[in-house]
Amino acid sequence: MIRDITIGQYYPAESVIHRLDPRVKLVGTLTFIISLFLHRSFLMYLVAAVFLTIVIKASKVPFRFMIKGLKAIMVLLLITVVFNMFLTPGTPLIRIWKLTLTVEGVKQAAFMAIRLAFLIVGSSVMTLTTTPNHLTDGMEKGLAPLNKLHVPVHEVSMIMSIALRFIPILLEETDKIMKAQEARGADFDSGNLIQKAKSLVPLLVPLFISAFRRANDLAMAMEARGYRGGEGRTKMKPLIYQKRDRMAYGVLLGYLAVMILVGQFAPF
Hints:
- This is Energy-coupling factor transporter transmembrane protein EcfT.
- With 268 residues, this protein is mainly alpha-helical.
- The protein has 11 helices and 2 strands, in the order H-H-H-H-H-E-E-H-H-H-H-H-H.
- The protein is globular, with a radius of gyration of 22 Å.
């Protein structure tokens, strides 16, 4: 399961999505997430699925690699579905002990599962097609007006960028520790869910030690290079909107307009 987490990883490729300004991808991801909560209709989710499929095709990231991240949230997805199916009041379908499966619960569970899956895949498109440095620059540039309110935009962007960059590093470190312990006879695959969770406990101590060591090395390296925050710093490659970025904003506006119209006039 740990090996299937794709959030924070970057997939290098030559595509129009990779070449887009990071601000466009941040706005696009936020727009896509908001569109999932505008209304509840299967036609809206069909439009969202078509849009997401086109974006994934344009990114040239393998579809199998994109949906692999869903395996990591499968347990959370199942819990969400079960809770909505049995705890939503409505027309009863099946009664199991004191729990009642309702028609409204099935619909609610389907909507929640689709939303969660689309949210994870849509967010993965941004992280897989944007390097951490570009993501930091995009967040800092996009949130620049908040500097007038004395919000430390650069520091917040740097923290989020470092956190995203550390995710694949820590996953790789976890994989190495697991392989080393499996070579010594540890078993992480057999048993039920509780036994598998207990078998992961010995991973925590070396993983935390490795994380703190890497964080300390990074802090010392930044201090040694004279890092003093974002004030007065210049960019080697400043972000400038290109024609493709303006066209991408137009596509996002068109998608949002279609979603609003479908939500208003969809028969179901």
